[in-house]
């Protein structure tokens, strides 16, 4: 047979395969509807294994492995296609800044909508046929409980629901995957042993979930709150605590920098967990970092609870490694990249290129300061002096430091004020941009013009080292420096 004839036959077979594949997926959609109607899981591993054995028995040994790979892929596509027919979403009152759609897009192929529902419309919405499964956020985690005809063990233990599944008969089942999310966050950070003492700040819904997890592990739990029997000022009475969990919104954007307690009151503490994740590092977490205490924000809890919710939505198990990948990606997206370094080292040029490369907003702190002051920096220096300028600079850095997912170029002297380090570090990775002194221009830079650069660098070098997470040399082209930063620079 001629080559062209073989290829023509393959083309005919491919057309047939495409038609058969479309028919198979349509049947998969019908099966999905049946499974939803009869509360059956989408994932049925035993049936898939039996099917693979039956199919591979029909071909010779040389085709068994390829056929197994082919049908494993088909089964995976079929599960995804069935899941895509699910109507899922997030129920809340204000959801404009929710990360849930992005999270669930990485966890499954189902439709995920935002349902912003007013309190007076909650009952009508829950009794409608507008969804198959929901996540629930504030202020409805307790309010949906009376609408659920069944509650999971964790939902009963915490008294709140953050996941709702519609059963075949239309009734609702409430679950609490925040429990699973906090458990994953805790286990990532060493866990807690039976009999060990943990202090939880706050007594709201998030606190009750945290308490339920800790008590299930046998921990001794103390709750401090403004309204409870023990206030935040009694922390010293619990100096033997090895774990501190902040389950309040204190320190959350836009109230960055606030904190409830002093970690010096917990000399035995080995881990601090803060359920806040914007900013990435609250004042509490920065304090823990300075003391060398293991710490993490609540983003892992958000990812962990979403993973468990996705498993409940689809009936498909998701490996923890997927959570690690998603967490890493979210952290990278949310973190600012902040450039520090001597005046004239190229922070603005490199920063703009870096922002373009990453498709992020770019802020030049000096330009922001000039807009705020209404004049250029040399003029302000001449009129008011350096101290006044540094105060204005800190005010601008306080605002810029609250941003997420940006590139920020700072002024060369921002490192001279210690308070700036926490403003920049709370939500960002700080990169020290280095360039040889003989390549630093002085035009338009009052500090550079008024000082010997060698002497100025000797003073500032330890400050740059203190502020930065890593250093990157800007000795080649700006594009090469951008690549160095993206690779993580070098210490």
Layout of strands and helices, then pairs:
Blueprint lengths: L2 H35 L7 H12 L4 H24 L2 E6 L7 H8 L3 E6 L5 H5 L6 E4 L13 E2 L1 H6 L4 E4 L5 E4 L2 H11 L8 E5 L3 H12 L3 E5 L18 E4 L24 E4 L8 H8 L3 E3 L2 H16 L5 H15 L1 E5 L6 H12 L3 E3 H9 L3 H8 L1 H15 L6 E3 L9 H7 L2 E7 L11 H5 L2 H15 L2 E4 L4 H9 L5
Parallel strand pairs: 1-2, 1-3, 4-6, 7-8, 7-9, 9-10, 10-11, 12-14, 12-15, 13-14, 15-16
Antiparallel strand pairs: 3-5, 5-6
Helix pairs in contact: 1-3, 2-3, 4-10, 7-8, 7-10, 10-11, 12-19, 13-15, 14-15, 15-16
Q: If helices are DSSP runs of H or I spanning 4 or more residues, what is the number of helices? A: 19
Give the overall shape: globular
Give the beta-strand count: 16
Query: What is the name of the CATH class of the domain at 335-486?
Result: Alpha Beta
Largest sheet: 6 strands, mixed
| Beta-strand share of residues | 5-15%
Describe it for me?
- With 491 residues, the chain is an alpha/beta fold.
- Among the domains are: 180-297, Rossmann fold; 335-486, P-loop containing nucleotide triphosphate hydrolases (Rossmann fold).
- The protein has helices at 3-37, 45-56, 61-84, 100-107, 122-126, 153-158, 178-188, 205-216, 283-290, 299-314, 320-334, 347-358, 365-373, 377-384, 386-400, 419-425, 446-450, 453-467, 478-486, and strands spanning 87-92, 111-116, 133-136, 150-151, 163-166, 172-175, 197-201, 220-224, 243-246, 271-274, 294-296, 336-340, 362-364, 407-409, 428-434, 470-473.
- The longest helix has 35 residues, at 3-37.
- It is globular, with a radius of gyration of 28 Å.
Jot down its keywords.
five-stranded parallel beta sheet, Rossmann fold, alpha/beta, globular, 16 strands, 491 residues, single chain, six-stranded mixed beta sheet
């Amino acid at each position: 047979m001629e080559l062209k004839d073989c290829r023509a036959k393959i083309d005919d077979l491919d057309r047939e395969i495409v038609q058969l594949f479309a028919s198979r997926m349509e049947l998969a959609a019908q099966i999905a509807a049946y499974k939803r109607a009869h509360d059956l899981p989408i994932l049925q591993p035993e049936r898939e294994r039996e099917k693979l054995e039956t199919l591979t028995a029909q071909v010779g040994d040389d085709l068994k492995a390829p056929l197994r790979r082919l049908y494993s892929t088909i089964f995976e596509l079929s599960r995804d296609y069935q899941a895509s027919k699910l109507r899922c979403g997030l129920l809340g009152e204000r959801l404009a800044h929710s990360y849930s759609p992005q999270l669930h897009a990485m966890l499954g192929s189902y439709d995920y909508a935002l349902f912003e529902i007013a309190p007076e419309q909650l009952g009508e919405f829950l009794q409608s046929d507008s969804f198959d499964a929901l996540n629930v956020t504030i202020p409805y985690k307790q309010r949906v409980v009376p609408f659920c005809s069944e509650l999971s063990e964790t939902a009963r233990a915490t008294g709140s629901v953050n996941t709702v599944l519609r059963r075949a008969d239309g009734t609702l089942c409430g679950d609490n995957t925040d429990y699973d999310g906090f458990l994953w966050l805790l286990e990532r950070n060493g866990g807690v042993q039976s009999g060990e003492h943990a202090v939880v700040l706050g007594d709201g819904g998030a606190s009750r979930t945290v308490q339920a997890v800790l008590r299930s592990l046998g921990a001794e739990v103390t709750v401090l709150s403004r309204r409870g029997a023990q206030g935040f000022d009694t922390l010293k009475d619990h100096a033997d605590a090895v774990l501190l969990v902040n389950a309040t919104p204190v320190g959350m954007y836009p109230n960055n920098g606030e904190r409830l307690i002093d970690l010096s009151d917990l000399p035995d503490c080995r881990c601090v967990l803060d359920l806040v994740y914007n900013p990435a590092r609250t004042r509490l977490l920065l304090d823990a970092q300075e003391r060398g205490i293991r710490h993490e924000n609540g983003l892992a809890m958000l990812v962990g609870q979403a993973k468990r919710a996705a498993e409940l939505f689809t009936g498909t198990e998701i490996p923890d490694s997927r959570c690690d990948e998603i967490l890493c990606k979210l952290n990278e997206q949310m973190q600012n990249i902040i450039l520090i370094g001597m005046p004239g080292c190229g922070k603005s040029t490199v920063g703009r290129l870096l922002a373009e490369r990453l498709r992020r907003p770019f802020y030049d702190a000096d330009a922001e300061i000039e807009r705020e002051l209404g004049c250029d920096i040399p003029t302000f220096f001449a009129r008011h002096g350096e101290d006044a300028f540094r105060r204005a600079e800190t005010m601008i850095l306080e605002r810029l430091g609250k941003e997420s997912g940006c590139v920020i170029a700072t002024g060369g002297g921002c490192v001279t004020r210690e308070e700036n380090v926490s403003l920049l570090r709370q939500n960002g990775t700080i990169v020290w941009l280095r360039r040889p002194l003989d390549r630093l221009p002085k035009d338009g830079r009052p500090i550079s013009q008024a000082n010997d650069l060698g002497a100025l660098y000797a003073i500032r070098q330890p400050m740059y080292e203190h502020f930065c997470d890593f250093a990157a040399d800007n000795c080649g082209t700006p594009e090469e420096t951008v690549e160095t930063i993206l690779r993580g620079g070098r210490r």
